[in-house]
Amino acid sequence: MIERCGLVAVLGAPNAGKSTLVNALVGQKVAIVSPKAQTTRTRLMGIAIADQSQILLVDTPGIFAPRRRLDRAMVKAAWEGAEHADRVLLVVDAAAKLGARVEQVLEGVDQRPEPKILVLNKVDLARKEELLGLAAQLSDRLKTEAVFMISATNGDGVEDLRRHLAEAMPQGPWHYPEDQLSDATDRMVAAELTREQLYLQLHAELPYSSAVETEKWEDRKDGSTVIHQQILVERDSQKAIIVGKGGSRLKAIGEAARKAIGEHLERKVHLFLHVKVNPRWDEDRGLYREIGLDWAD
Ligand SMILES: Nc1nc2c(ncn2[C@@H]2O[C@H](COP(=O)(O)OP(=O)(O)OP(=O)(O)O)[C@@H](O)[C@H]2O)c(=O)[nH]1
Ligand SMILES: [Mg+2]
């Protein structure tokens, strides 16, 4: 059998289900997911294997009109994720109305030289009679190699897409060991899993105004790992909400994150969270480096 290996960029508007799809194709959770838009902040590679192909899936932040420096860096990271890709997967939420955001992504993707595959996701929520119309409308706008209708959460259509990608990958040796599922370090995954809890447990603008940084990491001889993470927020009032009455909210966030990190590392984890106020954390170059984002001017 001939080995194949290639790069697939997963692009789309925020909340389209890109990270959920990457996890489904990999067959394990490698990227964090939440019902809130703009969950993913940096590129992450999920590695899927099908037949003799290694499919390197680049999950990207959702594309939107950026305002803050962090937003600009996120959108830049998304477009850069498509460079040198063998295929671009454009993921569209089939259950939502086509709006300015999808339009913006369509225009950008249309200008790219890479072959494109249109993925209509969330078909479990969409009205069947509208799907074909939506597919036709989008195919009119964008020259695509193929169109897939899938549900990343219940798996419908995911296997067909995986096969298609496997066959589309160019011949060549695998780039990663076959048991490697992503290119993220444990430190990054741990910070992301805590950030996922901020997205799941906090409301309004709070998740967007926060970031998670690793302060200390110690693998102990007894097989456990001690992790100290700092949650950065912009204002004192936000810190008060995250900490909660008598520290209850922070405790719940820490417990859920510790459990998720322990499952990922397959080790006992002692997690310590500290909340720090820094009105300008999104102007801190060191933090961008830590979370894997290039500085955007
Ligand atoms: N019902 C349904 N929900 C889905 C499907 N795919 C994703 N979702 C949900 O949609 C929400 C957003 O999913 P994500 O995977 O975080 O979306 P994303 O495109 O990565 O979002 P950003 O990282 O913010 O750009 C989550 O609540 C998912 O559970 C699907 O096929 N069906
Ligand atoms: Mg995402």
Offer a few descriptive terms:
297 residues, alpha/beta, 6-stranded mixed beta sheet, 3-stranded mixed beta sheet, 9 helices, 9 strands, 36% helix, binds guanosine-5'-triphosphate, binds magnesium ion
Integer average pLDDT = 96
Number of strands: 9
Beginning-to-end CA distance, first to last residue: 47 Å
User: Approximately how much beta-strand content do the residues carry?
Assistant: 15-25%
Q: Provide the spatial order of strands within the biggest beta sheet.
A: 2-3-1-4-5-6
Low-confidence segments: none
Please provide the ordered H/E string of secondary-structure elements.
Answer: EHEEHEHEHEHHEEHHEH
Number of helices: 9
The distinct bound ligands, ions and cofactors come out as:
guanosine-5'-triphosphate, magnesium ion
* Spatial extent as radius of gyration: 20 Å
What does the largest sheet look like? 6 strands, mixed
User: Into which percent range does the helicity of residues fall?
Assistant: 25-40%
Basic shape: globular
Broad structural category: alpha/beta
What is the secondary structure topology, with strand pairs?
Layout: E1 4-12, H1 18-26, E2 44-50, E3 53-59, H2 69-81, E4 87-93, H3 100-110, E5 116-121, H4 128-141, E6 146-149, H5 158-168, H6 186-201, E7 211-219, E8 224-233, H7 236-243, H8 248-265, E9 268-277, H9 285-291
Parallel strand pairs: 1-3, 1-4, 4-5, 5-6, 8-9
Antiparallel strand pairs: 2-3, 7-8
Helix pairs in contact: 6-8
The structure holds guanosine-5'-triphosphate (GTP) and magnesium ion.
General description of the model:
There is one protein chain. The mean pLDDT is 96. The chain contains nine helices and nine strands. The chain has helices spanning 18-26, 69-81, 100-110, 128-141, 158-168, 186-201, 236-243, 248-265, 285-291; strands at residues 4-12, 44-50, 53-59, 87-93, 116-121, 146-149, 211-219, 224-233, 268-277. The chain is globular, with a radius of gyration of 20 Å. The chain starts with a strand and ends in a 6-residue tail after the last helix. With 297 residues, it is of the alpha/beta class. Helix 6 (186-201) packs antiparallel against helix 8. The strands form two sheets. Strands 2-3-1-4-5-6 form a six-stranded mixed beta sheet, sandwiched between helices. It has a three-stranded mixed beta sheet with strand order 7-8-9. Bound molecules: guanosine-5'-triphosphate and magnesium ion (MG). Guanosine-5'-triphosphate binds at residues 12, 14-20, 33-35, 37-40, 61-62, 121-122, 124-125, 151-153.
